[in-house]
Amino acid sequence: MSGSLLIVDDNDEARAELHYFLSQHGYEIYEASGGEAVFALMGKKRWDLVLLDIEMPGTTGLELLRKLRERYPPDELPVMMATAKDTSSDIVGALNAGANDYVTKPFDLPVVLARIQTQCALANARNQLRQSNNRMRQELEAAARVQETLLPVPLASLPGVKSAWHYRPCSELAGDLLGLLALPDRRVCLYVLDVVHHGVKAALLAVMINRVLTRLLAECPDSPVDVAAALHREFPWDERTQQFFSLQLGFLSPEDGLFRFATAAHPGPIVIRAGQTEIIRVKSSFIGLGEGQYDEQRLILEVGDRLYLYSDGLVDARSSNGQFYGPHRCAELLTAARTMSLQETVMHLANDVQDWCGINSPHDDITIAAVERV
After folding, report:
1. Can you name the residues that pair with 162 across neighbouring β-strands?
2. What is the pLDDT of residue 156?
3. Cβ pair 208, 227 in contact under 8 A
4. What is the architecture of the domain spanning 3-141?
5. For 21, 51, 179, 209, which has the most beta carbons within 10 A of its beta carbon?
6. Residue 159: exposure state from Cβ atoms within 10 A (0-12, 13-18, ≥19)
7. CATH number of the domain at 150-373, please?
8. Where are the domains of the chain?
9. Are 311 and 275 in contact (CB under 8 A)?
């Protein structure tokens, strides 16, 4: 069976001619003499194509076409109009109203068949593409749910530390990853990493990095540099994939406020203190590029101080006129919002970045991780 066709024509002989010819080529044929008959069939039967006469008493072909298009777009139900040879205005009107193609009367049956086959083949290809896109969307949504399981859970009650985070991928799958976790020795590990680019390729690498990081952190490494160096060894440059990533990772001791951290080509932390804001900048190379030499940095968080890590998608977000959000605007907002709770401040920052972009969504993932010593 080649498919099902609906022939709509008030001329009995024209319908019979088409019915006989097209059924000989494997099509299942349905007939209607006018709009009322089509309306009665709509919802009961779905056709692969409608061959519709443009000139009929009562509901005209164009009126019926518009009714069909209210329910079925051209990529779901092809409609081919039949019209007289000398009515070019009717042809243009039909195409503008949503017809996929047209044939002229009197019918040249081989031409009618060829055009029907073409439209049915196109419709079938569109349907297969739609199904493929739906499957891909479902798979991406499933993969995104897997990624969400990698996000931090609320830290157990730790004396001396509050934490908050925000994660907003720019597409279904992200290349950003963040962590806020308590180590067995009571230190708090805080990290944000950003795989170059985003989408499926970056997301797969982010998941692989997470597995390695989980193993490394379970061993309670003494220095964040040890972790960065181990990741560089685990994920060397590969010409086939050409992937690498940036990292900001540190260990906070809640008892004395010492934060030891390592940076790999990642935006430096922002520290908000009473009356002072510090944007820390560290020059370093990506993990997966270069020799993998990383230095340890240290700072002290006093009670009430806040520390923010973030991905470059935040500071590189652009307004409608092309201006970057930038680390200084970020620091100013965090300073002004220091009377808010930590979680409120993080959300305020994320929303301000979204407002900065206006109608344009951010073109990169946005990730924020924050701690406050209390």
Report:
1. 372
2. 58
3. no
4. 3-Layer(aba) Sandwich (3.40)
5. 51
6. exposed
7. 3.60.40.10
8. 3-141, 150-373
9. no
Distance, in Å, from the CA atom of 345 to the CA atom of 162, rounded to the nearest integer, reads 13
Name which of 1-10, 37-46, 217-226, 244-253 the model is least confident about.
Answer: 37-46
Query: Other CB atoms closer than 10 Å to residue 223's CB: what's the count?
Result: 14
Output the six-digit token pair for 65.
Answer: 């076409």
Give the whole-angstrom CA distance, residue 327 versus residue 314.
8
- End-to-end distance of the chain based on CA atoms, in angstroms? 74
Kindly state the helix (H) or strand (E) to which residue 64 belongs, with its residue range: helix 61-71
pLDDT of residue 199: 75
Determine the residue type at 70. Answer: E
Output the CA angle 172-131-95, nearest 5 degrees: 110
pTM: 0.71
Cis peptide before 152 (omega within 30 of 0): no
How much is the pLDDT for 85?
62
**CA 66-68-69 angle, 5° bins:** 65
Q: Determine the Cα–Cα distance for residues 2 and 123; give it in Å rounded to an integer.
A: 13
- pLDDT tens string 82-125: 987 667 788 888 899 999 999 998 999 999 999 999 999 999 99
With CA atoms as reference, report the closest residue to 116 among 256, 3, 208. 3
Is 306 in contact with 334 (CB distance < 8 Å)?
Answer: yes
